Inverse folding.
């Protein structure tokens, strides 16, 4: 069987219009050409799809079944054409994003919501990954755009970057901690505290250690955790304090206290990274919504 879209289009038109003569005008062709097309369709199917008389054309039971089936085909075809055109123009398709914890607590949710509002036909896929893993994912093309922690970050020469936000640090402490009611502190006031850190945050942990050493003490790291919620649970349990970028204020802190550290300038930068030769037509429109803070 070898059906063509033209055969189905001619059949659908005649079925809707109910006349070969009028259908020929709609399709800008001749009646003999339509007759030949329908004969070819019927031959391929092995059934008659129309009953013909001198005044009208009506569908056979097989023709009614065929009409019902092809309605969905043409609808899907129209949607496919629209989708292809949208993808080519950047109005449709998908984009794969990766992020670090600091980004999802910071500006990324607003960026995603704003972009989704104006681009509802684009599918956004998001995945948590470390900065090192994000660089590998973007380099391989598995991710279109990454939101990474940028502390003296070295990128491949083929990458582009856009700074998004730079934040200062805060101390997260239990509600009854000696510093809980302070409006601000200096980092050195944490010298005698136990520190809680992320077990995969090597560069960030180095930053905190270096800042402490500059103030003549070495942070005593007693607990590490993979997830932010685990770290916050450790703080609530009184196992230590957590030094975190200011974006932690956007998390559910369950009664924990956040105290700004004033003697450390904004040192934690979130940066968007992508390949200069990226081919995804959606990427430029998303980057326009990534606004530096």
């Amino acid at each position: 069987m070898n059906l063509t879209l033209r055969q189905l289009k001619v059949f659908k038109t005649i079925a809707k219009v109910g006349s070969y003569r009028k259908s020929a005008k709609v399709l800008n062709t001749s009646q003999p050409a339509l007759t030949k097309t329908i004969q070819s369709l019927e031959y391929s199917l092995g059934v008659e799809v129309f009953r013909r008389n001198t005044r009208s054309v009506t569908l056979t039971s097989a023709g009614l079944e065929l009409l019902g089936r092809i309605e969905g085909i043409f609808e899907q075809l129209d949607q496919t054409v629209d989708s292809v055109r949208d993808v080519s123009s950047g109005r449709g398709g998908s984009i794969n994003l990766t992020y670090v914890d600091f980004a999802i607590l910071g500006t990324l949710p607003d960026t995603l919501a704003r972009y989704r509002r104006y681009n509802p036909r684009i599918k956004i896929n998001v995945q948590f990954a470390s900065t090192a893993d994000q660089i590998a994912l973007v380099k391989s093309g598995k991710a279109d755009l990454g939101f990474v922690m940028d502390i003296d970050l070295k990128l491949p020469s083929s990458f582009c970057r856009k700074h998004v936000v730079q934040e200062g640090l805060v101390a997260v402490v239990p509600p009854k901690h000696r510093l809980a009611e302070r409006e601000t502190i200096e980092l050195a006031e944490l010298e005698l505290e136990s520190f809680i850190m992320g077990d995969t945050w090597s560069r960030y942990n180095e930053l905190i250690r270096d800042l402490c050493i500059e103030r003549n003490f070495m942070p005593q790291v007693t607990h590490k955790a993979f997830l932010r919620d685990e770290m916050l649970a450790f703080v609530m349990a009184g196992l230590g304090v957590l030094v975190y970028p200011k974006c932690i204020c956007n998390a559910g802190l369950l009664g924990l206290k956040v105290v700004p550290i004033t003697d450390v300038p904004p040192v934690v930068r979130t940066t968007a990274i992508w390949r200069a030769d990226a081919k995804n037509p959606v990427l430029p429109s998303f980057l326009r919504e990534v606004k530096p803070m």
User: Anything to note?
Assistant: Residues 38 and 256 are 76 Å apart (CA to CA).
